[in-house]
Every structure is written in structure tokens, then in C-alpha cells.
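Collaborator request log, item 7. Partner lab (contact: R.S.) asked for a structural prediction of FadR/GntR family transcriptional regulator to inform their binding assays.
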Amino acid sequence: MTTVPTRPQKTAMLLAQRIVGDINRRGNTVGDRLPPERIMLEEYEVGRGTLRESLRFLELQGVIALKPGPGGGPVVQQPDATSLATSLTLLLQFSNAPFRTIAEARGGLEPMMAQLAAERMSDEQLLDLRASVDTMAEHIDDQVVFLEENKRFHDVIARGSGNAMFGFLVDALLGILDGSAIGIDYPEVRRLAVVKAHTSIYDAIATRDPEASAEAMRDHISQYLTYAEKKFPDVLAAPIVWQA
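Returned to partner:
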């Protein structure tokens, strides 16, 4: 049996992992400065080029910010889903995946998020979810507010699921989940339907009913897919493209 040799990791990547490990070991938090370059060169026993490549990689991942000038250097940051969003979008684009891929993923993932949210969502998050429903209903004539609250609603549920993976996934894809960025429109009749669906999902989560929450979300996503397939079939078939 022939084994394919694994590709050795670059020294810079291994060093980046060590730096992150040391950040955790020291208990560094956002805003903390890491040791200056000369100290890091001595501590890690690497060349300046390797160290700088590692630090640039960590900066791109949102782990640190490189402050210029005297007293500057690497400063610990809180990573967000920006890098994940870019990576996922590029992977999908180079796989020639259509927008339908995102819509189908929602149908599989979001009912589970709602089910977990019914069991785990905090009272504070529940209030935030209620506020999103109310704000959307109060500004039903404003599509900008509608789209903002639509994203907020699903984001609160993802984070309320208590599963960090769901939170980051929804955050990463938040800009394209509703399809508005690539041409799916929401006339008032559709916005009213979304408010009704969000209210049903909220009610199920608020009563801490996992099965009803999952079913309400499943119905909501199904209605969205039916609407998109009927009104915007070309959009669903369009390839996902990385956009700034």
C-alpha cells in the first residue's frame, strides 16, 4: 500500500502556532502587547524573515494587530469571522458552487440551531430576539431595516444555540444568507411573511420548546426556498463569487 507523504508545514506556520500557544499560556487578552521583535527572535530562535511572516499571517487571521512606530509591535486582538467568510466564499467559488448551496445549508443547519437555542438561549438573548422581531414589524416599509433585522435575528439564534461553530458560520455568511446581495428582492408581502415566521420561531424558543422551534425554523427556510425558486431561479443557479 502506497502512502502519500504529508507536506511538511512551513517554519513560519509552526512559529505562528507557537506564538498563539504562548498567548494562551500567558493568558494574554485583547489589547495586550506581545514581546518586541528582538525578544521574540531570541526566544524562538528563528530569522527575522520567518518571524515577520508568522506575524503577518496572524495579523491576517485577526489574532494580532501590528502597530507601527516606537512602542508599537504586535498587539493581541479578538479574531472574528472575516477570515472564515473569505475562505468559505473562495472555496465555494473555486468549486463552482451555486447560491443554492448556501440556501440548502441553511435548511440543514438552522433548524438545529433553533432547537438548541430553545434549550440554551439566555434571557438576555431572548430579549434581543424579541427586539429584533418588534423592530422588523415596526419598520416593515423600510427594506434596509428589514434586511438588518433579518440578519440580526438569525445571528442571535445561532449564538443562542450555545454552539460556537454555528455562531461563526452564520456570522461568516451573514452578508449572503438572505440573497439580497445578489438580487433576491423582498416586496412588502414577503416581508410581512418573514415577520410572521420570525414571530412563530420566537414564540417557540421563548416557550423553550425544542421540537416546535426546529419545525418553525424548518418551515421558515422552506418558505424562503420556495419563494426564491419561484421568483429568482437564476439567482439560485448563479455561482457564488467573492465580493468586497
